[in-house]
């Protein structure tokens, strides 16, 4: 079960180089990965399906380890003009490593499909757990939100915008922690990007209005997510996507009575229509990077005086997270509120059942179409 995504064709945008890394949060060196082929894996259950293909549980032959194999139909990627997004996904996943982001193990391809080898996260989607529970008590929502704050801070420090935060893209490990998955809409951007993409209920107003958007759209999405965890439904909902967009642009948020004042205040500040006032927006994004000289001088002075503010630090300092030990969050030493029961490393009971697809249901590519995927041989 999933909400429909919105994705426009990839266009030329001002994109940061892949090695544009903030010195405040250096990326781990690219991990050494072995070369895989489909013959290396035993294909097991289908864990999920999507526009381009499906995700299968697989077992690595001769080793016995279990992984998630994302299988993408090349013909569908080209038909929907999503090659750039998939390239960005692979490029970003190959460079990042964080406790609350799914581990990427490698990729390979054949004449029909592109395959991404990922960490298998057994506990299923946060979406499924939330639907079973109806809504989360405050301490559970805070527990999960704190993990996401650290993950978004890590990504933003490297100029990465995630752009698809929602319960369906959050997996629960057998130890009870979250892992962000599906980086199909993630992008490395220094300033702004203009592609309309994401899930309607989670889109920030500046995405809908095509004003250009930056990292602050992820903080907006976090506000939507915290609301949905606490209320059991998103703050902006309509049967028609255009109705959702209108409600987002109107900006009116009605809170159930059981949501406390600290949570309300945080959500309101994350859902600020004015992105320059939105909690989590860093000062250079607030300024629109119109005068880089002044910004660099300002940041240098701030760092020297020890008073650099903005970005994720403002979110962490909000009173809603007043009892959070951020070091313990990153160290994963907190006691999880929920441990998904698993019956072994290959157990997949927390995922829905799907029928198998025919082996030859993807089109073989030739000529320029086949050559378009040679870019994946670069990393």
Automatic annotation (TrEMBL):
Gene Ontology molecular function: ATP binding; cAMP-dependent protein kinase activity
Record keywords, A-Z: ATP-binding, Kinase, Nucleotide-binding, Serine/threonine-protein kinase, Transferase
AGC-kinase C-terminal domain span: 322-379
Gene3D superfamilies found in the cross-reference section: Phosphorylase Kinase, domain 1, Transferase(Phosphotransferase) domain 1
Domain Protein kinase: 41-294
Family matches, as SMART domains: S_TK_X, S_TKc
GO cellular component: cAMP-dependent protein kinase complex; cytosol
GO BP: any one term: anatomical structure morphogenesis
The keyword ATP-binding appears for this protein: yes
Pfam families: Pkinase
Protein name, UniProt field: AGC/PKA protein kinase
Organism of provenance: Phytophthora nicotianae P1569
